[in-house]
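pasting for the record
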Amino acid sequence: MTLDLDHFRQELESELEQLRAARESVNHEGSLTDETGDLATGADELADNATETYMRELDDGLGKNADHLIGEIEAALDRIESGTYGTCVVCGKPIAAERLEAIPYATLCIDDKRAQERG
């Protein structure tokens, strides 16, 4: 099986760029008070602050997921450079091109991925 490494490199780099942009958009540098102003004491202000806190926690979760995917994609790009891209890290067999189209940073063939999910 011969993979079009340039195609997968472009896919991975495009996804990496999108994730980095998304990660930057949820990056919170200051405290909640810095971002939203002094915490007020009225009921409406408390509700607004609760919403802001919830949104920040949601953004933090999305940011952590983006960080994880960025690491996976960077590792896949490293595998392209080292010549190991598309090879299952468990059994050493080729990962199907269809699987890589769906998940270009996959490290496991479908059989080993299923075995992993079964535990």
